[in-house]
Amino acid sequence: MNKRFYVPDLSDKRIEYASKFLQDMGYNEAKVENEADFVLLGVNPVGSLLKYEIPCFAGNVSDNNVYDYTKNEVFALKNAYLTAEGALAIAINNCEYSMINAKVLLVGYGRIAKALHRYIAPFTNNITVCARSDEAITLAQSNCADTIRFSDLTKRNDYSYIFNTVPHPVFNEDELRALKKGAVLIDLASFPGGVDVHFAKHLGINLITARGIPAKCSPESAGKVVAETVDIMVKGVFA
Questions:
Q1: pLDDT value of residue 63
Q2: What is the pTM of this model?
Q3: If you count Cβ atoms within 10 Å of the first and of the last residue's Cβ in the chain, which end, N or C, has fewer?
């Protein structure tokens, strides 16, 4: 598609790579907005998006006039695997336990948790999923995981790795007190997360708040995902 795009901000490293991938796909980068067909911005862009008079593609925005590529299912699925890969590396590098045969808890069973399940399975078959819906519980069980409900999180447990993907309060005082000493708790949920950070600190919990993993751990691959998703969306917008 012979379209020109304008990139006003390269502070999100993904967009630097996305720009290169779009050019490889046949797009041309414009130096100024009035020579472009659309604007390309990163995730959580700073400043008002209303100033642009041409279509604007950005991530995690609430403006109805902006095309949000993070809401695209293609982006969400591919980004989930990049997030899971980075989360696995972060966990292994911040825990004194080997993941081989370790007991792992996945809280929530959406895209990211499912991707994590796939990546962790070769290391251990001691994987437990905590989910709310019967559908998620059934799916996790069909994927050979043990399952618990959220009410079970207050019971003493011996999980070495806990990955939270639920973006609302899950690990409060009782849930945090139930954790095994030395366990690593990785909160992958979007802001404000699912962990009482202050109480976790008070208890000395090994808590890692990990957001925006793809941009930090694999910006080139993340940029490719942005470019591929924007390409799909642009073809629909300019059809």
A1: 77
A2: 0.91
A3: C
Two tokens, residue 146: 């043990």
Q: Which residues of the chain have pLDDT under 50?
A: none
Using DSSP's 3-state secondary structure scheme, residue 90 falls into: helix
Question: What is the per-residue pLDDT for 57?
Answer: 95
d(C-alpha 19, C-alpha 164), whole Å: 32
Rounded CA separation 12/26 (Å): 22
User: Distance between CA 46 and CA 101 in Å, rounded?
Assistant: 43
For the sheet containing 184-187, what is the strand order? 146-148, 127-130, 104-107, 161-164, 184-187, 206-209
Q: What is the DSSP string of 165-209?
A: --SS--B-HHHHHTSPTT-EEEE-SSTT-SB-HHHHHHHT-EEEE
Residues 3 and 227: beta-carbon distance below 8 Å: no
